[in-house]
Structures are given as structure tokens and as C-alpha cells.
Amino acid sequence: FNNDDRFDLLVNNFNNDSLVLLIGNNNGTFTRETTYFTGHESAPKQLCVGDLNNDNRIDIITANYGSDSIGILLGQDRGTFSNVKTYSTGHGSKPWSVAVGDFNNDSRL
């Protein structure tokens, strides 16, 4: 996530309405970097990543089971992310998973 050629981890916290970013160290361990709020009672069930706005930064998308929404956190400098922006998936929809892809074949996610 921070472009240092080491693996980083992003952890989905269903019960805490958050994501935790863990930055990879040189020795195979990880350092807790930042916690990102996914919305009040969002209960994020699954996440995926992709460059949604073509800025060459990874963005995060969450399926928010508790709030019937998806959340998008846009990638910023040095592996940080914007505050979540949520989009409704419909009352009672309880989204379980989310995926990204170029579904309309316009060369964009």
C-alpha cells in the first residue's frame, strides 16, 4: 500500500466498523499503521482493492453488511487513505461481498 516493495496487510474488522492497515517491515513483521472507520454500524463483511480513479494509487472498497452500503476509501500519499464515502446498496440488501473489474470494457475499473 505504501509502495516500498514490501507486503502490507489490510484487516477487515466486522465488529469494530473499521479497517486496520499493517505496514510490512524488512524482517517479515508488521507495524500497525492506521485504523480507518468504515461508517457507523457498517459491519464491513469483505473488502477488495483497485485503482478506481486512475491516479495510480490503490483504493479500498468494503461491503458494509450492517449499513446496507459499500464504502470507498481513496488512496492518498504514502499508503494513506481518505475518509470513507458510502453508497447505499438498498434497504435490507446486507452486502456480503464486493469485487472490482472493468465490467463495461472502458479500460477503467
TrEMBL record:
Pfam families: FG-GAP_3. Signal peptide: none annotated. Keywords: Signal. This is VCBS repeat-containing protein. It comes from Rotaria socialis. The lineage of its organism: Eukaryota, Metazoa, Spiralia, Gnathifera, Rotifera.
